[in-house]
Amino acid sequence: MASSSQQLALALAWMFAVPTLVLLAGFAPVGRGRLARFASPRDLTVTVTSGPVLITYLARVSRWRAVGGAAGWVAGGALALPGAYYFWGAAGYLVGALAAEIRTSVRLTPPDGPRRASLAVRRSGDYLSWGVRWGPVFVISAVALQLAGYLRWPSAGTLDVQPSEVLLGGTGVAVVTAVLWLSRWLIVRRPRPVLPDDLNAVDDEIRASSLQTIGGASLALMCLAAGDVMWDVTLDLDAPEPFNWIHSVLAFGVFAMALYAWFGVRVRARRLLRETTE
């Protein structure tokens, strides 16, 4: 009886301790140090005009992401959803990041006078790192190769991996891919008035940061959904060497890419080539 109570207490502590820490970090005030950590890697000069815009952006998106991540983590445990806590925490984080963008990251105020729109051409490739652009292609290719090998060399001549499991994982990958591409289109094409150079630079960095964050979180979720299916396929695979070894490497590679996407791609700063107005 005591052992069951201790296990329940540990489960509840795990369920609520991590979200509490996430919320405390997300709602922490934006100080000079955090502002410098955002601006320095991007070679961004913070001015009297652009500073408040950046502070507003950093405070807003961190709160939305923290709330989404904490809610997803708690929901995954409280509702006994399939998958680990961290998967639903990452999914909630992505939902929170998208919600912050739907509210628009920043509301830039155009200068006085007639309203004019900027006609500068913006492409998603200018804002995203190599990992976000090509990571989804690697994941989808790895899943396709894994499933092709499984159809060719099933264990004991029978397919023991349930179609519903493959369908669930494939649906997760498809949904996250759609979210990734739609967010690219919406953020890159978000209208921008004609602004001074310092606010143009801030707007570009905000778009790049938002896209990189959403792209990294999407790629991590994609890898987790695909890796779950790929691991089950690997365990039930009866391929000759070296094909069995290759499929194992692919499965481990996708899980490793999930860590790289979350801890590397998601937080990476991408420097932009900026054009100044005359």
TrEMBL record:
Bilayer-crossing residues are: 85-106, 127-147, 167-187, 208-231, 243-265
Q: Which UniProt keywords apply?
A: Membrane, Transmembrane, Transmembrane helix
Q: Which domain of life is it from?
A: Bacteria
Identification of the protein by name: Uncharacterized protein
Record organism: Planobispora rosea
Instruction: Recite the lineage of the species.
Output: Bacteria, Bacillati, Actinomycetota, Actinomycetes, Streptosporangiales
